[in-house]
User: Fold these one by one.
Assistant:
Number 1:
Amino acid sequence: MAKKKRLKIALIGYGAIGQMLFDVFKEKKPPIDIVGVLVREGRAKATQKKVGSKVAVVETLKALLKLKPDIVVEAASQQAVRDWGETILNKGIDLMVIATGAYGDPKLWKKHRAAAAKSGARLRLPSGAIAGLDGLLAMRLGKLERVKYTSIKPPHAWTGTPAETDFDLPSIKVPTVIFQGSPADAGRLYPKNANLAVTVALCGAGLENTDIELVADPTLPPGTNASRLEVVSDSGELKLERLGRAMPDNPKTGVLTALTMADDLMKIVRSSDW
């Protein structure tokens, strides 16, 4: 039997998510090699010290693609998706996107799907810090009557967002709704907090038929955030609540976000067609 090749991935960004991917692969030792990391100008030297000499640290997409990765993993921002997503897909290289809030723009979503279809690349959207998307995907084969996603984080996790202007975050003492609206608006206004709003919409009833609620909750256990997914369809109802640990250095992002990305990549190398 021929030996399976190793999966070569390249990262865009080296923040909390990127660091955790390195840690998970180091511990679990799957047949996956991180061959390169794309960072902002001026950050290459510091990042190189962190990742070691075996991983190329570059400052341009062109240099990253020269490493010939099988998959480029976006772990940076919605802007990175907008700037580089189409180029990557046009090259026939798979792209994993976690900043799915960028796809609150239907034109960008359509453009990236078309690029992937034309080149044969795959556009991969991991589930992020939520569970239950498998049920939602199945239920949409019938008739979805209602889909609502609620993201719940401590007040300080909403610092640097419109909520900081609209509310006195440090003074919030009870769970408080800071946003109600569409997935596109949630992803646009809260680009570091509400990407999953768009993921849920794309997996279910669409951008126009999904309700989003963002909540500042000071009663959450320290170091955690939560979410709630509610689905009503002709096949039944789904109600799912999740309480997860936030990244130690980034309360806006859950640990489960990085773990679902790692799990999706490890599923690729476990698949029979790899």
Number 2:
Amino acid sequence: MDRIFREHMPVKLAKDKFLSAITPITRMEDISIQKCPGRVLATHIIAPRNVPHFRRSAMDGYAMRAVDTLGASPLNPVMLQLSDVVEEGTCARVGTGQHIPEGADAVMMIEDTVSMGDMIEIRAQLHPGKNVGDIGEDIRKNEILFNKGHLLRACDAGVLASLGIRKVKVYCKPVVVIIPVGDDLVPLSYTELPPAGKSLESNSLMIGLYVEQWGGVPHYHDIVPEDTTLIKQAIEENLNADMLIISGGTSVGEKDFVPSVVASMGELLVHGVGLSPGKPTALGRVNNKPVVCMPGYPAAGLVALFVFGRPALRKVANAPDVPDVIVKAHLSSKIPSREGYLSYARVILDGKIAHPLMTAGAGILSSIAKSQGFVIIPEHVEGYEKESEVDVFLIE
């Protein structure tokens, strides 16, 4: 293995090479705004009207003519008649967000007044426009509200609803086929204890749940034996998908056929990256569909999925990549790493302290669930010393 993978590609170069070969989908659909959070706009949204479409009060108080408050103060109050209409010498009661009557050009806060029956004592001076929300103050008619490619949120749905927009055109969710490969795997439906040398195939479930979280639609393929003909057949049968993720069969063992099959069917862009764990990752393209070939070991596969699978899926979906959630912490002990490899070390967080957990061992499944995040060590750094302040990238 070391002989074959001695020439590995730096992670950034591998990622850039892979992403540059990906073509985003163009399929669109109309959906209701109730279902729009997390979807990507396929067109600009143009405001069909002003918001607000009427002058409204920004305060609880009284609408009036600013000129009628000239010189008013606590020591020199002005008296105005309470009325339903606003004209010289009168004012009208208004609440926050309510329509301001014609004739009024300002609103006096209720705190600056004293009610005396149907007379209102004004104790401050206003200028025209004070505490008044103009037509179109929030949104102007015909302005671009959201650009094509915008990732919609719940708050965006509220804005759309305020404009009377009930449906939006978005890109369809990309379909991602997940193909597990391995003679040592048995399906999750297997109810007995697997025989020695066999294990339950759990990677597909993990991958599929992340695909859903990142905006895709997972389709699960049955386990494929380590046979070139059967691997090729599984890929061919699923080229109507937008992306393929193959778990297992990427290393350099006698039966690790996946990269060679991808190369024979299309283009193998990368095989072997400076990533620890995750070195055997392969990246390619078949029939213009991106193919992520991730190691079968769970921890290595998860790292490869985060580093390559997530940005690839987001590009296919026309969506911005998901920003990492990062917290600062200090190491409770040293984390070693191998120079020349971008290393992902699993850690447990205890407040502001990060405890390294299984910094080696790509196949230790439980270490994924026990850890809260990764400390990422650059290729040119030989580990981090105890008590070093580090960034912890939280596992989603």
Number 3:
Amino acid sequence: MTPDPITFMTRVEHDPLGEYPVPTDAYYGVQTARAVENFPISGLRAHPDLVTATVLIKKAAARANVELRRLDSRVGEAIVKAADEILNGALRDQFIVDVYQAGAGTSHNMNVNEVLANRGSELLGGARGEYRLVHPNDHVNMGQSTNDVFPSATRLALLLGHAPLVEAARALAASLQRKAADFASVLKVGRTHLQDAVPMTLGQEFGGYAACIDRGADDVATAAEQLKELNLGATAVGTGLNAGEDFTARTVTHLAESIGIGVVPAVNRFRVTQSMGDVLAYSGAMRRLAIELGKVASDLRLLSMGPRAGLSEIALPAVQPGSSIMPGKVNPSVPEMVNQVCFQVVGCDTTVCMAAEAGQLELNVMMPVIAWNSLHASTIMRNAMHALKVRTVDGITADATRARELLERSTALATALSPYIGYEKTAEIAKESVATGRPIRTLVLERGLLEATELDRILSVDAMTSPGIAGEKR
């Protein structure tokens, strides 16, 4: 007789709600299986860094519990070995709970507990699903609650991605600064309100871009310091029931040693258990960086607009054909991608903001969506900045001739005359120049307002790109 396929492919586990089938070859267990059935929402899974961070916490906790003689050393060693396997890339397909899950991240925490318990049991000679040798709650989750594991894992995961994020921003800023040096002598018209403004150099413009990205990176670096306070040992509400100060100190010390980041026990565990404000601050700093980045990307698109009917003061590297119908068309594809990423980062931050406000009393149950959005924002912005640097900024070239042509056609040159002939006369000359197309210099000389040599000195473009009164002897 052929066995029932469902029975043949599953094992039966039980939890406080009763028995439930789990795939025979799965390393996760009954609570994970229930979560998969309960939350078939997005198809999105836990961010890899969140899995890593949670496994690191379980490893550190097992070591602390063995040292405190609360956990049998053989069991603790099995948990540590199982954790190391996952940290080295094994069993990553076993973390299957949807991002949108029960509040606080209990399903994610149990997913990790069950995988470690089942793999730990195997290492000790047991079978998956027995939990006789290693239990997900009694052993892997010893001294912990989802309410201190998940916020700590979120902070830790953001810290794991923090250095690469800041590094990508600094590298992009450095590339922009190199272009600023390359373009230091390229004279052009500045623009405000998308209208002609006073002269500047392309190098000055790019130097401003570099400083904007650097300042955004500074904000992210500053905000990261708040993430180093972990509420491990707070357990359910912050009191530390079933944990203790010795557990907290040892666990956090092991974590700091394993990741090389100076994480510390929270000064006030109740604050860190109640509030996701520190993650919100980090998300806000990423939003600021995204806004700065998006503005730079938009400006690169504007400055390269053309190549015949636009500004075309710079040329971006061609990375792919730009049209399926217009042969030879090349688009600013990478900056366009960056703009889309920046929009998404702002959306992620809005979600984090709303979810951070939605906590009640001793816990914020919206942590899963906070974790996913903040980690997603960090990942895509890091990758976008790297792509922008390598595929666009490093290869930008300037068209100095085109930039000078547009500058000399601009009536904004007249601004330098105001200290000498007054605002009203300057405005009259600029207006006439626009109406007739005649050069400003010619109109000033015809009216006898200034001598030719003095006028040449005042209208020197080089003088107008430096601080002070144009033409003034210094």
Number 4:
Amino acid sequence: MTQHAAFVRAAMAKPEPPPVASRGVIGWARGNLFNNWLNAALTLLSLFLIWTVVTPLVRFLLVDAVWQGAGRADCLPEKAGDAIGACWPFIGAKFAQLIYGFYPWHLHWRVDLTFALGAMLLVPLMIPRAPFKTLNTILLFGLFPVLAFFLLVGGNFGLEHVETRSWGGLLVTLVVAVTGIVASLPLGILLALGRRSHMPVVRALCVAFIEFWRGVPLITVLFFATYMLPLFLPNSWTIDALLRVLVGVALFSAAYMAEVVRGGLQAIPRGQFEAASALGLGYWKTMGFVVLPQALRLVIPGIVNNFIGLFKDTTLVLIVSIFDLLGQLRAAFADPNWATPSMLFTGFAFAGIVYFLFCFSMSRYSLFIERHLGGGRR
């Protein structure tokens, strides 16, 4: 009987690489940008719009920009050439004014120290795996505001007193935004809980508060807090103008934050409340340990959206004679030594970059937190 030799492969054959057209940049483009005629048309239209808008912007900000100079003469067409770009020496000359406002120049170190301390306490708190979270939270939200107040205002411990009307620029923008953000979240949570309360008086008061502040524009709130509120106070009472703005902004933002949090509370299934009740947890423990952590995780996009809107709304304080970053920029435009055709566009481009960096950072960090907290949902 003839024996036939047989070959049996001892290992699996290595898979062949996919065709070039389905991998790498080409494969990604074919699968995402040109997978059908509609996406291909939209991709080409988008590329055309990007080329139309981005190219002149890059030329103005970088290619044709003037980077060195000591006055308006360096940014005029006669010296810079026909294609006039951004006049960045103007920003360099006014940089201190845009950051500190009219804060005394020899005391800028106090503002810098405040910024540095805030960053040193905020960055570890934003890192999920950083240790000593409780201590860090106490220092940031308990000790730092007091320390920042004494550093910026002075008048104690040998520090020279600086009135808030001398503040300005990015300093005022950050003070108003951070105060509003930090104060609005806990107030919004309390208002949202009060609106869902079973006690009629508490619910009615919270509803009235929320609807009143949501029905009034922020400009009206700032006008009332700055110009009309002193008319209703005794003559012996004097409240700092910046403090009135801070209170108005915090209350206004808290009303909107309350509705965002209430939406998260309504999304929690009733079974969570019943399970907490079965374990013997009271109302506050149920809210603090069971309901609120889940509700706040669901509404992170809405919360950060409110924060971003509040940060941009700080520009409205200009109408009540508080010079934030945009206000100081407008004041810098009045300097005839820098009066050039591109000064206005350069200033607003710089302000736009600053606001974009802060808002984009908050947006990206919110996405990071969503991914980090949503691990169990994947």
